[in-house]
Amino acid sequence: MASAGGQYGRIMELNFPTAEELAAALRAGEVTSVDLTDEAIARIERDDKVINAICVPDFDRARAAAREADQARARGVDRPLLGIPVTVKESYDIAGLPTTWGMPRYRDFVPTADAVQVSRLRDAGAVVLGKTNVPLGLQDLQSFNEIYGTTTNPWNPERTSGGSSGGSAAALAAGFGALSIGSDLGGSLRTPAHFCGVYAHKPTVGLVASRGMVPPDAPAWPVEHDLAVVGPMARTARDLSLLLDVMAGPDPLTYGMAHRVALPPARHERLGDFRVLVLEEHPFIPTGAAVRAGVNRVADALVDGGARVVRHSPLLPDLAEAATLYTNLLCSGSVARFPVDEYEQLRARAAALRPDDQSLDAARWRAMVFSHRDWLEANALRESHRHGWRRFFAEFDAVVCPITPTPAFPHDHDPDLLGRRIDIDGAAYPFFDQLVWAGLATMPGLPSTAIPTGPSPDGLPVGVQLIGPLFEDRTPLRLAELLEEAIGGFRAPR
């Protein structure tokens, strides 16, 4: 790029630039948005044949938006993301582009309006390069479907990039834009970040409006869905905060008519002031050696930085009960719109379970036929857990724990999701049991930031999550920044 000189040129020689670095280079006149956009498009056209992260390119409109951003800057306009190339998960509505959720019957569905978060990106000046790949119906920890194919991991194409925001994580790791937005119900922001070596933040439930991030057969109404959130993905912790500030806030059609967001500041600014509980073991599933090592790298950095670190606390809500409760809430919602005949088959399967079967697999089958009374009882127990977390966070500032038990696993396209198995250090476990770590934050709605910790012995990224108090999202985000300084952060695949 002819105009890429000075500090920007030095950044490019070292690694993919962050959004913060790009914004500084743009403001200094060292580069233009057209330059950045053309470079991102060229990289996608060169490298995405193997990765397959960008399933719906929008390059013509991206170049037009970049020209408009440069013209606006020349007039003295400055916005948080002005001229910065970004990507968007396929499940968000973008006017004029298909929204399929990977479901073939909706391959021709094209919305006429942007999702609220796409509008916020545009209002902040971002240049949208296109949409990133997802699994069928967003229902997998991988990203593949019949319409767009399989997204591979930039670190190893034989491995998954994760799901359901796997296309976004892979795009970031490969340098296809500086930022992306995704969603999270079963770890769909955090797991791909962990697998691809990037950062993601699952916001406190209700903090970020999600209108327009709905299945193609559902109306884009301002409805907040149970457990599910939308949130930012980036290559640094500071970029997560930059993008969260753009995304945060209630829907202007509902609470946004009367409320404005004023998140409390981070509890601490120095690593040595944090009080942290470190977890590496779960009663339902073991933690693989590579992830255990990542957790302990973070624990060591915390201790070296002077933080108060403990491994056990009676204040921690019961992990087994929390995992079962999360499974109940997740699965009871997932079958709400099943046809009656399929529902009756599920009832028969649940009725055949032994009463003493307390496995997560049994919990899944039982939850699929929950009555409204059952769901209300589960929701009441969730409120009890939330109260337990309030007591916990009166004494602690964060929890460090795994996101999944292993680094990115080999592609597994077995359509029998409940029959799949995950290999943990040579032993097989039910595929969806690995969701227990993601559910630890999701069930009570807590904020959680995924950070890379370094490579596994075979070179795959390993991440952990930092769970914080309700609506104190800036606390785990600040801790992520400090740990990035202490242990290093994103490194581009070679």
From TrEMBL:
Domain Amidase residues, every copy: 35-475
GO CC annotation, single: endomembrane system
Pfam families for this protein: Amidase (PF01425)
InterPro entries: Amidase_CS, Amidase_dom, AS_sf, FAAH2
Name the UniProt record assigns to this protein: Amidase
Organism per entry: Actinokineospora auranticolor
